[in-house]
Each structure stands twice: as structure tokens, then as C-alpha cells.
User: Fold this.
Amino acid sequence: MVRKLLTIDIRRDAVAATLIKSGLKDNHLEGHTYIPISVDLPFEEGVARAFEFLVSNMPVQEARCVISLPAEDFSFRNLRVPFKGAKKIRQVLPFELEPSLPLALDRMLIDFHQIQAAEQTDLLTAAIEISRVETVLNLLSEVDLQPEKILPGGFAGAGILAASGRQPANFLFADINNTTCALYVVADRKVMLARSFPCRATDPKRTKLLAGQVRHTLLSLEENLEIEFEPEELVLSGAAGKDLADRPDLSDFFNLPVRAADMLQEKQINANRQVTMSWEPFRMNDAVALALTEIRGTKGFDFCTGPYARSHGWVEHKPRIIRSACIAALVVILAVISLVLDFRDQRKRVRHLDEQIASVFKETFPNTQKIVDPLHQTRVAIKEIQGAGLSSSANIPAVRTIDILQALSKGIDTKASVDLTRLAVGPDAVLVSGETDSFQAVNDMKSQLQQAAIFKTVIISQTNKSDNAVRFKLKLEI
Assistant:
């Protein structure tokens, strides 16, 4: 199923947005926009106008929404706790951070990013004034948008680069705007530390200021987390980062390799040439990073929790849920119908086989009045027949078949024309059938066989003439 994802990177001086179509096979950049905010306008009014322009120029209906707020609105702290369960951490976090918060605890939203979990768990925490979040949420609701996640500006970009295989494991990520800079420290591919500080684009000493903040940040990292950190690279992003990235002496100034970030190079979002003709990576990086964070399911900060969590997901997804439920119900109904029909067919086949078995049983054992279990009754009848055969075999005379054949051979005149067609040897008699040329020949045969010692009596059971032959049946009692 194709879904739309709207990401909005909100800054003090601009709003950047991307619209991504996310499917099972790929993710496609459908549109993007960068809306500057005039310095002559209050922040709320400038953002409201940017949102109105955004929804009127991009098809954002039914799109999931993820936003980032200016990093300078957040207060970042590093903290270490003696447990790793998220529930326990959330319980103690307000009390641990309360002394260092700029406002009262009930006026702040707090969240954390777990750096590493062990007996001592290191956390990167962030806090923001509730009124700032409410202001942006109210402005979004006026254009029928409600975000699912809220992140600090620049954090998504640092996290995406930290997980990138094309990036060194240890680096600094500077997201620079016209008035501020958010600096993130990535060590061993984990976002360890974050801070925001003023950094005006018009300040001629901006580079020197940035270098000083980098040094202070590294010292803070060593003191707070007690780790030695040697960055391998400085990565620049943000609308005002392009000017610094173009300076050829910047690497010498920081004593570090410096490069510009381009989140589209992560290759998880496709874009056609027409869409990217006006693309400016420095301005759009964090909006793309928000999309990549959602696509990859990256864990991190989320200030869209509690009373600010998305509440109308059912309304948005109701048609899809109902359609899916109807399809599932139809599949279940068809499966049940198939089972019922198959069961009925099996019952018919079983009934037909039972009738065939009963018919064969009646033909085989006609004296049986009641048929209950044909298989069992057949087995019992066979045992009775076998038993009767064994008992009758005890009364069979000790006369060999070869002796009977010899007596017949001697008792029939070799000159007579006699053809034997059947010979049946029983326990007390021998039945002989055949053909000869006259009735007198039958009488002569009887007289001669009567003289054999092994036959008690010889009886002519039947004689009849057919064409030129006389058919006969003799019973010779043994």
C-alpha cells in the first residue's frame, strides 16, 4: 500500500517541507518547497503563512506528518542513570533535570535519546517549553495537519549520517541557520551530545565563533561522558552552511576535513530530474532526514506524546481499515463456504461407499438379516467359515487325488470315446462330468468304476443327449 509522508522542518527564518510517496518497493520524492520567513513578521504569523502556502501548493491530504522544531528552542543535557528500562527512566527524568531546567517543570516537555544501555545508561535529554509546541500544533491544526512526531531540528540529520556506511564513525554535524547553529557530536556512530548557540550569518567572526563552540563542545564531551573523542570530519548543513562549505580554507581553520551533507545521497528516496531541478541540499537536508528516519524506523526523540499525541488516526485510516476488514471478512466467508461444501461432498461419498459395502455384504452373506458393522461382521463370518473348513477337514478320508485319478484311468475303457470336462474332489465324493458317444458307454463306465476299491458307490446323476454326444455326470462316493 502506497502512503504519503509529509515532513516539515521549521526554522526561525524558514520552513522546508518534502512530500514522499512510500511504498513496499521504493520511496519517491513527489514534491518539496522552501518558504522563507520575513524577519519583519512575528514567528507565529510567518509560520502560519508558510503552512497556508504549503497546503495550497502540495497535495498533503491523508499524508502522515512529521515535523522538527528549531533546535534553539530545546535545552539539551547529558545524563547517566543506574538502570536501562524506559519506564523507570521516564519516572526519574523530571526530578533529575528539574534543577537545570530554564522554566518550571510543569511548563516543559521532556524526552530522552538512549545512547547506550548498560548498568549505567547514558542519555541525551532534551526539554522544550510546552507553549512553543502548542503554538506550532495550533497553527498546523488550522490547515488540518497533525504531526505524528516532533523532533529537535538537526537531530534527524545527525542520526541518519551516524547510521550511514559512507560516513566515519566519529564526526561533528553542524546545522547552521542565519541566526543559530545546532552542533551534534557523533561518536562510535551514536549521537552523544547536542548544543545550540547563536551564530549570525552577518557576523564576520562567525567562523571563529563556530570553532570556539566546537572546542567547548569537545571539552564538555570529555568532562560529562569521560570519553576521549577525536572527530574525523565536520559535516555542514543548514541554509547558512553553504557559505562556510564554499570556503577553501575551512578545513585548515578547523584542522578537520569539511564536507557538505546531502541526504538524498542516502539512496533510499528516489527523485526524478524535474523535481530536483530547484533542489538545494543545504536547505532541504533536515526535511529529507525526517523522512528517512520514518522510513528506517529510527528511534530517537519524540515530543508528540501524552496530550499532544496524534488522536484522530482512526478517522484518517477509517476507509482503509473498513475496506481491509471487508476483504478479510469476505475471505473468511468464502473459506467457510468452501469447508461446508467440501464436508457435504465428503459425506455424500462416504454414504455412497457405505451403500456399496452393504450391497456387497448382502450378496456375499445373504442369510445375515441385520447389517450393523459390515467390516466386523465380514471378519466374523470369514472366521466361522474357516473354522468350519478346519473341522470338516478332520473327516476327509486319507485318499490321495493321484489315487482317484488312477482309479478313473483304469475304470474307463481305453477303446471308449470319453471326454472328461470336469473333476471335483470333495471330502466324501468325487463329481465327474464329461461326454461320450452312447448311453451304453455311460453304463459300462459306471460298472467298471464300481469295481474300483476306493469308490463305495457310483451313481449316474444325469445323462442327456446333445447332437451326436451324450453328456453325463457321475457321483463317486469315497
User: Anything to note?
Assistant: The two ends are 94 Å apart (CA to CA).
